[in-house]
Amino acid sequence: MNVTTASVQFTGSAQSYLSPTGVEVAFILIGLVVLGSALLVVTVRNLVHAALWLVVCLGGIAGEYLLLGAELVAWVQILIYVGAIVVLLLFGLVLTRAPIGHTDELDVKHRAPAVVVAAGAAGVLVTVVVDAYRKVWLEPRAAVPLGTGAANGAALFKYWVLPFETLSVLLLAALVGAIVISRRGADGDSDEPESVGTD
Amino acid sequence: MPQFPDAVSNQNMTNWFLGSFDTHIPWWFILVVIKAVAAFAILVVLTLFNIWYERRVVSFMQMRIGPNRVGPQGLLQSLADGVKLALKEDIVPTNADKPVFWIAPLLSAIPAFLAIAVIPWGPAVSIFGHWTTLQLVDLPVGVLYVLAISSIGIYGIVLAGWSSGSTYPLLGALRSSAQMISYEVAMGLSFAGVFLYAGTMSPSGIVNAQQHGWYFYMLPLSAIIYIIAMVGETNRAPFDLPEAEGELVGGFHTEYSSLKFALFFLAEYINLVTVSALAVTMFFGGWRAPVPISLWSGANSGWYPMLWFMIKLLIFVFVFIWLRGTLPRLRYDQFMAFGWKVLIPVSVLWLLVVALFRQLRNAGDLDRAHAVPIGIGIAAVFLLLVVALEVRERNQIRRTPPPTVPDYEPLAGGFPVPPMPGQSAPAVPRRPQFARTAAAPAPALNGTTAEEASTR
Amino acid sequence: MNPDSYLYLSAILFSLGALGVLIRRDAIVVFMCIELMLNAANLAFVTFSRMHGRLDGQIFAFFTMVVAAAEVVVGLAIIITVFRTRRSASVDDANLLKY
């Protein structure tokens, strides 16, 4: 008996090992991490530390996706956001000479109104959500087969082909645009003398 | 699921080792712990072995002897070096950002260990009477997991470079992040062909799909692109620009010492094993026995597959060492141009061809008799394209007039300067060594007369 | 369990991102806060997908990620160009249309 259960669990019928309460506890813990790190992203004075807290936050969101049964989205989140986008941002920070130590980053005059606006937005959004979804209830185990690679691929290429193709055009445009913008001294309108040396 | 008749009988003899465990711990948990510890131990031992292996093989290629004092054939040399490294003073630069300086080596080493979790080392085997596959977890999107985890390793390098508060590490970090991001694209594209053929992203599924032929034979170009990209991804020679000793001292780990440096070293060698294991899994049949051995029916069951896997893995490690011993380092712009202008376009085109073939095969419009000429035709067009581009480039090089180089001034700006490319220093007549006469013309370069020189 | 909790998380995360956009100076950190807001939206999408038992929300999350990647590429190019001429990556310093 024992043999069969063990092998079933290992050949991976995609079942969640977490009980419903386990899912809830995990949600709360990860949610606290996400919120805490997001707060740090906004308030930490050191730029590179902010980027690192952003990594923690995005990783936590990937964890929430896993809890929601969206396995593929979770790994793509790590691959694209953590693995590429934040690395690019760090790259930008280093290129623009992010100083080690404290900066005058947060010394803006309108800090109080900004906090008021953000709190107001949060209040409105939360009340709307409370009002809208009071009576919905989810069974945590029901969603597991939903987010697999096969299901996502089928949905993407059956129903969402046109947006997909449009996005590829957008990516191409972004690529070309980035190259055009960052090319030094295009069309000779740069204020720097171009041929200073053979560098 | 095949039935294993002897599993039940094995289970009856409860052995001494497991009797000591609390029976409430579920079996799968014990097996997972055993496998995790084993994977960790294998990785660490392989690292120690690979360092020795690399030093010996490179020595052999350079007609030296290499480490042969500590232990039999010098096998324990890396262990001794490790102890030495651990006992060294741990220096943290004053300018460094301390917390990040501490985290960076960990961020580099931990993902390296994590990535091995989804690699299948063998089929189902019996461990203490319980059947389990030699794989820690079998994620349905396992290959994506490896890509995601290995991209986290970049952080270790970028942060190490930034937090050192020093120029060379910063330059090395910038180089390496650009390098890894660019080569990851080619890597992902080379996997896409395998996904198309295997129909799954799970590593064990991909190994199963290679039962009747390795993907290296079906997708040779994908395999070659992956092998090139994996060298770029692990920062190994000839693509070891982030730590180019001649230009950047040590690159991102210049300021690191002692155990923190050891962690970077460990991460590099574990990444070597991980990408090799991935190459074996994706393109070279995983744990399946190679052709002459696979005729023996027992070759693909029990613990033997782990042996085949290890042999293939070590062959890949040898290839890495061979590359290091053979090729000089690329220049940075050549390297980036190669990645973006050669590897990525080629892999996109190749992916188109693979997808086309796959679709035609699935639709049933293509039999073997047609497939071969079409394939040859595509290959010919491809080759022609490459040759045409190459010829065009060469012609352009020939047509562009050589840049006009100003005459060489030995004392431009008051300092003695070496000649620029294209310039040549005027031949300085060699001074007769013991000339006492002032007849010898004073060399223009340092502006001293012969007498002054001889009095020094 | 109640899907509300995911949506609360998403809403608060969005507000935090907005706060960051309002109070930070460095253009790249402003970018990071925009990423936070995009991620909050993604979390809401995936939650909705889970609630309705359909995949559309998850597909939309993919699309958002692609758009975010494109946005970061172009945005970084702009920031680096501004940095080259103004020697600063602060949004307060980018106050001229030319040079």
TrEMBL record, chain C:
EC number(s) given by UniProt: 7.1.1.-
Entry's localization field: Cell membrane; Membrane
Membrane-spanning ranges: 6-23, 28-48, 60-83
InterPro entries, per database record: NADH_UbQ_OxRdtase_chain4L/K (IPR001133), NUOK/Mnh_C1-like (IPR039428)
GO MF, one annotated term: quinone binding
Annotated membrane topology: Multi-pass membrane protein
Cited Pfam families: Oxidored_q2
GO cellular component: NADH dehydrogenase complex; plasma membrane
Keywords, in A-Z order: Cell membrane, Membrane, NAD, Oxidoreductase, Quinone, Translocase, Transmembrane, Transmembrane helix, Transport
Superkingdom of source: Bacteria
GO biological process: ATP synthesis coupled electron transport
Keyword field contains Cytoplasm: no
Reactions this protein catalyses: a quinone + NADH + 5 H(+)(in) = a quinol + NAD(+) + 4 H(+)(out)
Principal subcellular localization: membrane
Annotated family: Belongs to the complex I subunit 4L family.
Role this protein plays: NDH-1 shuttles electrons from NADH, via FMN and iron-sulfur (Fe-S) centers, to quinones in the respiratory chain. The immediate electron acceptor for the enzyme in this species is believed to be a menaquinone. Couples the redox reaction to proton translocation (for every two electrons transferred, four hydrogen ions are translocated across the cytoplasmic membrane), and thus conserves the redox energy in a proton gradient.
NCBIfam families the UniProt entry points to: PRK05715.1-2, PRK05715.1-3, PRK05715.1-5
Quaternary structure and interacting proteins, as annotated: NDH-1 is composed of 14 different subunits. Subunits NuoA, H, J, K, L, M, N constitute the membrane sector of the complex.
Protein name: NADH-quinone oxidoreductase subunit K
Organism: Actinocrinis puniceicyclus
Species classification: Bacteria, Bacillati, Actinomycetota, Actinomycetes, Catenulisporales
